[in-house]
Design goal:
188 residues; 10-stranded antiparallel barrel; mainly beta; Lipocalin; 10 strands
């Protein structure tokens, strides 16, 4: 009887874990893409894993600050149907995002959070991957009140790493002012 209970328990446990086979685990520490997820989830495929990065942003006088060392870690979540990333920065300002593709609007919804600014409502960027770049936007006025967007762009994406830039752009995207840059190298 005890052996039968152990066997039934093991079968039940295996079927429970089988339904979450795309979650991070010992074999796949960053999870796996779930084939039932939108194919656009593969937009982030080359970023999944961990990179060592250099982050540089503008100081109040608009000059560039010294680079900050950073780890950028990416994984599949929600049983392989979404992507989560987190940054661990040497200056203690950590952040992350949850990325879901909306099949109805045909765009990415990226929800951002940070350890330095705790917000009751997460900031949201929207966008898509085009010509090898992932470009996301959020409406934001310039300091002078001009209407525009804060644009985030992942580019030069490969298995070796990627680059990222945050820029304020006007509505026509002819005026571009970069405020933050990150370069990442995969070391595995």
């Amino acid at each position: 009887m005890k052996k039968l209970l152990v066997v039934l328990f093991l079968i039940g446990t295996q079927s429970l874990y089988a339904q979450y086979e795309f979650e991070p685990n010992k074999k796949n520490p960053f999870g796996k893409y779930n084939p039932e997820a939108p194919k656009q989830l593969k937009d982030y495929e080359a970023l999944i894993g961990e990179c060592k990065c250099k982050s540089v942003s503008r100081k109040p006088d608009q000059s560039w600050a010294e680079p900050v060392d950073m780890i950028w870690r990416w994984k599949y979540i929600m049983n392989g149907k979404a992507v989560q990333d987190e940054t661990l920065k040497a200056d203690g300002k950590h952040s992350g995002s949850i990325r879901q593709y909306n099949k109805d609007s045909l765009r990415w919804n990226v929800h951002y959070y940070s350890s330095s600014t705790i917000s009751p409502v997460l900031s949201v960027w929207n966008g898509n991957k085009n010509d090898g770049k992932i470009v996301l936007y959020r409406e934001q006025k310039a300091p002078n009140g001009m209407e525009g967007y804060y644009r985030l762009t992942f580019y030069d994406i490969s298995k070796k790493g990627y680059k990222w830039i945050g820029e304020w752009v006007d509505k026509t995207e002819k005026i571009v002012f970069p405020t933050w840059k990150i370069e990442c190298i995969r070391e595995d």
